[in-house]
User: What shape does this take?
Amino acid sequence: MNRENFDVIVVGCGIAGLSAAITAQQNGARVAILERAPIDERGGNTRYTESFWRMKSIDAVSDDFVERFAANAGGWPDPGIVRDAVRDREDQPAVLRALGVIDPNLIATIAEEAPKALKWLSEFGIKFDHLPLYFLNQSTTRMGPIGGGLALVEALGGYVDARPEDMTVFYETAARALIQDDRGAIVGVTTVGPDNTPVEFRGRNVVLASGGFQGNQEMLTHYVGPQAQFVRPVSRGGHYNRGEGVRMALSVGAAPCGDFGSFHAQPVDPRAIDIEPVVLNYSYGILVNDAGRRFTDEAPGMVDATYEEVARLIMAQRHGIAYAVFDAGLDDVENWPVTVRSRVPPIEAESLMELARAIGVDARDFLATVEAYNGACPTSDGFDPLHTDGLSTTGLEPRKSHWARPIARAPFRAWPIICSNCFTFGGVKIDERARVINAEGDAIPGLYAAGEVAGIYYRVYTGATSVMRGAVTGRLAGADAALRRNAPD
Ligand SMILES: Cc1cc2nc3c(=O)[nH]c(=O)nc-3n(C[C@H](O)[C@H](O)[C@H](O)COP(=O)(O)OP(=O)(O)OC[C@H]3O[C@@H](n4cnc5c(N)ncnc54)[C@H](O)[C@@H]3O)c2cc1C
Assistant: This one.
C-alpha cells in the first residue's frame, strides 16, 4: 500500500515529533505522523517524564548550561581539528563537520531557542514553574511543566487531533527504512503496520523523532556490552524506542554523534513497577554488591550531579545489582522519603547478620565490609545532609567522601538497586537547522533528526536537557522542512 503527497513525514510523537509536526503545520505544511504505539500509549519517554528543563527562569537556561555541556564533550578530541569549531559552519573543514563531538554551535542554539520553545509550549496552555524533584538539594536550577511530560503529550497531541486535515497520525505504524531518490534525497519511509502489513509513505521531508534504542536489547548489547542484559528502560515508554530512527539515518550515510557505548543511567529499585522508581538516598549509607563488598564512593558530591556514574558502576557489578544499606541514622535526614520513588518497602532487620541473610549476600564478607567502613568513619560531628559536609572516611578504599557515619544502630534497612536506562546517547549529527549531516560533513537533503535520535551527549548527561533538546530540535526541523517543501530541487 502507498500513501503519498505529504510535505513532511514525522516519525514518532514524543516531544520532538509533536514539536516538529505542529511547527511544520503552523508553517503551512501537510504532515503525516507515524507512531509505533497505539494512541493511548503514544509519546514514548515524554509520556512518563516529569520533564524538567535546565532553566533559571522562563527567559534563560541555567547559569551552568554551557559549562556543563563543555565539561561533558566527547572523549579527548584532536585539538588541531576541534579548534575550527569557532568558525561558521560553511568555513569548517568537512572532517570537523562530520566529527562525533558536541557541536558548540548547536549547544548555543539550544540555549538560545529553549526559552522560545518554552513560551511556544505555553500557547498550548502549559505552565512552567520551579517544581519539587526527588533531590533534597540541587547543584543547578530546573523548571518543569505542571503535569509533566504527559501534559505536553496531551496538549500537543490534542492540537494535532483537532486538525486531521493538516496532520494525520498513523498509529501502530513503525518506520523501518528510508526511501531515497537517485540523487540521494530522502523521499519517503517504508513502515510496517498491524498484521505485518508493509505501507510506504511518500513525502519531501522526513523528521526522525523516534527516540533512542533503549528498548532494543540487541543494539544495547552491541554498543554498551553484555552487562546491558541487567539494564532495563526506566519507564514503559522506553520499550517503544527500538533504535530504527538511528539505524535508518546511519544506513543512508549519516555521521554518528553522541556516545554509542553509553546512556543516561539512573539507580532504581528492580522490584518496583512505579514510573521511574529511583533510589537516591544511598549517599547517606553504603552500597554493597552481591558479594557483600563496597565498590564505589557513595558520596563523591551532590547526588543530582553524581548518581549517573554510580548507577553505571552498579551495572558493572556481577549480576548488575547492589544494595543500599542504612542503620537507624537514615531518619536523621529530614524528608529522605522524597529521594525514593519505589513504593516497595525496604528489607528490614534487627541485626546486620539478619540483614545479610535477607538480602542474600555472604554474611561474613558483608560484616567485614561494614566493620571496615565503620572503623574508617570520622569521630567528629557536623553531619549536614543538605550540603557536601566533608565527613569522609580515612584509609578506606574506596573512600566515602561525605556523610560518612557508622552503620551500627538497629533497625537496619536495605534497598536493592539496579541501573536503568532512561535513554541512549548514540544518535546522529545534526546542524543548527536539525538537518542530518552525512559522514562527509554535508546535509542529507530532506532528512532531519530531533530529540533522542540527534546525539549530543557524552560522558555524563547534562541533566534536565533532553526534553528541551526534543522541543528545540523538533521545532527547528519542522520549520526548515516546511520551508523546504516549496523550494526547487
Ligand atoms: C521517567 C523519565 C524521566 C525523565 N526525566 C527527564 C527530565 O526531567 N528532563 C529531561 O529533559 N528529560 C527527562 N527524561 C528524558 C526525556 O523524557 C526524553 O529523552 C525525551 O522526552 C525524548 O523525547 P523524544 O521525542 O526524542 O522521544 P520519545 O518521547 O521517546 O518519543 C519517541 C516516539 O517515537 C515512537 N517510535 C519509536 N520508534 C518508532 C518507529 N520505528 N516508528 C514510529 N514510531 C516510533 C515511540 O513510540 C514514541 O512515541 C526522562 C525520561 C523518563 C522516561
Observations:
- The chain has two domains: 2-262+425-484, 267-420.
- The chain has twelve helices and 20 strands.
- The first strand starts at residue 2 and ends at 11.
- The first helix runs from residue 15 to 26.
